[in-house]
Design brief:
Helices cover 52% and strands 6% of the residues. The two termini are 16 Å apart. It is mostly helical and 250 residues long. It is globular. It has a three-stranded antiparallel β-sheet with strand order 1-2-3, with helices on one face.
């Protein structure tokens, strides 16, 4: 029997109610007068999940305003801000390094990243079909990590935040393709997406720096592979070993 779907980030269930909750950074608690934000979103999970992004976006707006009050002279942009394309390249490189370290240490957890639901969410994120909530569930950990490292300061759910999530998803898709090949004992393919193979974007002090366009995946001339083709190949391999039919249906 399949387990229950995990709740999105910042959504908690307390008895029969769903609650949106965000912890306030300790340095801002005196300004905001609270250690956390919390709001009941009712007893219906679907309605609560739909309302969550707007509520959380409001919480982050309050935190950003408190940051400005704490240090009005501070530059609101991170000092080391870099483009989504460069973050995608860093993400891919670090995923590859982590994967290699786990394989060499014998601590690799195989198969978890290749569940159909995750693969499809990465595809939907890259294409822009996914909701902010789905993007956050798939790549929020990395977006938060890059924010903590001073690479960006995008607000959850904003167009710039979604662009970052979409670009990171392209790097993640390349990593999944590589890892799938290794899991099947094959040599890893060469990356084909420009966000991974192009030179890193220069560090820029403002968000107005040019960003490489999110060009569609194409098989014409360049030998690139569509994410949907990668997924079909994954299902075909699963079916060859007697599985994959439920994955394809999902």
């Amino acid at each position: 029997m399949a387990g229950k779907r995990a709740l999105p980030k910042h959504l908690y269930r307390i008895k029969d109610h769903f609650v949106a909750r965000l912890v306030v950074p300790e340095r801002l608690r005196g300004i905001l007068g609270a250690s956390q934000f919390s709001k009941s979103l009712g007893t219906d999970r679907v309605a609560a999940e739909r309302a969550l992004p707007g509520v959380v976006a409001g919480y982050y707006a309050k935190i950003e305003e408190a940051e400005r009050k704490l240090d009005p002279a501070a530059d609101p942009e991170p000092v080391q801000r870099i483009s989504p394309v460069e973050m995608a390249r860093i993400h891919f490189d670090e995923q590859v390094a982590r994967d290699e370290a786990q394989r060499n240490a014998g601590s690799l957890v195989g198969g978890l990243l290749f569940e159909a639901g995750y693969t499809d969410t990465i595809r939907r994120t890259a294409s822009g079909e996914a909701s902010a909530e789905e993007m956050d569930a798939a790549l929020g950990w990395r977006i938060d990590d890059f924010r903590a490292r001073g690479f960006h300061n995008e607000r959850y759910g904003s167009p710039q935040w979604r662009l970052l999530a979409r670009t990171l998803a392209r790097g993640e898709a390349e990593f999944l393709r590589r890892r799938s090949a290794l899991d099947h004992g094959r040599a890893p393919p060469e990356p084909s997406d420009p966000v991974v193979i192009s030179p890193p974007a220069p560090v820029t002090p403002t968000p107005s720096a040019p960003i490489a366009p999110l060009t569609p995946y194409s098989t014409a001339g360049g030998g690139g592979e569509r994410l949907t083709d990668l997924f079909k190949a994954y299902v075909k391999e699963r079916q060859a070993s007697g599985g994959g039919f439920e994955s394809e249906r999902r």
